[in-house]
Amino acid sequence: MKKYRIGIAFFYHESHSFAPLKTDIQAFYNEGYFKSVEIFTAYTDTKTEVGGFLDVLKRVDEVEIVPLLCAAATPSGTVTNEAYLQIEKEMLFEIQKAGQLDGLLLALHGAMVVEDIFDPEEKLLHEIRSLLGNEIPIATTLDMHANLSSEMIKHTPYHFGYKTYPHVDMYDQGVNAAKIMLEHLLEGKRYEAAFIKLPMMPPSINMRTEEGPMQVMVDLAITMEGNDFIKNASVFGGFPYSDIPMVGASVLVIAENKVSAKKAAKELAKKYWDLRQDFIMKLPTVSEGMKLALSMNEEKPIVLADISDNPLSCGSGDTTALLREFIRINHPRSLFGGLTDPESIEKCRRAGVGGTVELKLGGKTSPEFGTPVEVHAKVISLSDGIFFNSGPFNQHLRVDVKGAAYIKIGEVDILLIGRPMSANDPEMFRHIGIEPTSYRILGMKVKNHFRAAFDPLISKVIYVDAPGVASNELMNFPYKNIPDEIWPLKDITYFIE
After folding, report:
1. CA gap 38, 368 in Å, rounded
2. Most distant CA pair in the chain: distance in Å?
3. Is pLDDT at 131 greater than 80 in this prediction?
4. Would the pLDDT of 485 be above 80?
5. What is the mean pLDDT of residues 92-102?
6. Which of 39, 280, 293, 308 could disulfide-link 67, Cβ–Cβ 3.0 to 4.6 Å?
7. Are strands 334-340 and 356-361 parallel, antiparallel or unpaired?
8. What pLDDT was estimated at residue 312?
């Protein structure tokens, strides 16, 4: 009989308070909803947090892995009360059904918002604590864009935020969470945490960790982890599209003692505040971005990134400003995708490969950001929309975009997909016969995650801020619940105590 029983679970959503479509339970079913042993099938050998949990725990003879519930949905509007409460209820039921647990590893996002709940991850931890009691260790993983609250730290000091954007270290943070769990249980080690919430919610466009201010912050955090007393240092950018009181940036340090944790957290927080202006970027319009791309002479493709409609920032994936510009310019060797349009995919299916079809592309979810574009298209290829990521972002994970169609309009090739999904992996294109490296200009509904896989394939990225729900201009949003004094909406003075 195993000596320790450790539960693993996953409840993940990034919620946009101003996105028009609510996230219902079907959205979780579409993306990933697994119970019990289904979790092993879904996440074994994947570069995900749960993949990290599994790889660490299965190497320890004293540990029995107890799979509970994993639920994830693509970033979108606020989660409905019904969906959240159903998943919470099922999560608690699985924990009860599991019997005695000695620990729990829980992958969270940290920027979920429910219709009537500002801090659902904290609520979930509270409910889990009511079942497990205060002595059972819990360790979580969190997205770099988590709106972490001080209340969450009361439930456990063990929170591990991603250190990369694009997020290619999800697996590594799963490994770190599992290791601290084993140190707690097998070695009797105990760690303390220090947390500082800053009055700032920087836009995420300039949070890439290969350059710029977030690289500086992460490098400092990693340097601190070289200290014998510091176990982990996390820097959270927050998610500025969450209209909640706990929105924004924060730092968290896990250490062998409170004094060391507080000292490191203060140093991180001070540096973060000093760098705040470096996160601000002014982006070109669609037409300005296209002119810039056409003026370049590069061997590899140039990407026009439609960040305002990036599905992983909760965009609908079907706004039309950049699409309309691609069709208007009609430049040879141009590719646009993926555009979310299940209605047009169905028309393409009826026409069949090689057929021609009249379509009204995009503009169906949020026509205020661009009406549908009427086109005459040829159907080149069709697929069921299922592929496996080649990585490094979410490597080996199965993806289902609910159907896909490859069409041609003049000189422009377009990939249509059946549900919002950022083009973060080239397999989205390749699975249907499109080789993205064969084009001169790519129009993609992405922000930064795609660069993990695409940077070796492309020459330049031009970020454009077309109309969309994930605009880089935070002043555009009608916030009601965020703190009154928060940068960059206000130029405020702040001192680290």
Report:
1. 41
2. 70
3. yes
4. yes
5. 97
6. 39
7. unpaired
8. 86
Strands (E), 119-197: 138-142, 158-161, 192-197
Pairing of strands 356-361, 192-197: unpaired
Residues 173 and 218 sit within 8 Å (Cβ to Cβ): no
Using the predicted structure, report yes or no on whether residue 1 has a pLDDT greater than 70.
no
Kindly list the distances between the CA atom of residue 7 and the CA atoms of 93, 97, 298, in Å, as whole numbers in the listed order: 13, 11, 51
Asked whether the beta carbons of 421 and 449 are under 8 A apart, the reply is no
Residue 148 near residue 159, CB atoms below 8 Å: yes
Distance CA 14, CA 149 (A): 15
CB count within 10 Å of CB 206 equals 18
Contact present, 242 and 236 (Cβ < 8 Å): no
Distance CA(117)–CA(71), nearest Å, equals 18
C-beta of residue 320 within 8 angstroms of C-beta of residue 343: no
Sorting pLDDT into bands at 50, 70 and 90, what band is 395? confident
What does the pLDDT average to over 152-165?
97
352: pLDDT strictly greater than 80: yes
User: 198-212, 293-307, 350-364, 464-478: lowest mean pLDDT where?
Assistant: 464-478
| pLDDT band at 320; cut points 50, 70, 90 | very high
Which tokens belong to 153? 């730290």
Q: Where are the beta strands (DSSP E) in 183-288?
A: 192-197, 230-236, 250-255
- Outline where DSSP puts E strands in 169-249: 192-197, 230-236
Sign of the C-alpha dihedral computed for residues 381, 385, 386 and 387 taken in this order: positive
Distance between CA atoms of 490 and 497, rounded to whole angstroms? 21
User: Taking 90 as the threshold, does the pLDDT of residue 394 lie above it?
Assistant: no
Query: Rounded mean pLDDT of 187-201?
Result: 97
What is the rounded distance in angstroms from the CA atom of residue 455 to the CA atom of residue 492?
37
Token pair listed for 485 = 């004094």
Helices and strands counted in the chain (H then E):
14, 21
The SS3 assignment for 483 reads: coil
Residue bearing tokens 């009826």: 350
CA atoms within 13 A on the CB side of 452: 22
Task: State the CB neighbour count (10 A cutoff) for residue 165.
Answer: 24
pTM: 0.87
Q: Which backbone phi and psi does 211 adopt, to 5 degrees?
A: -160, 165
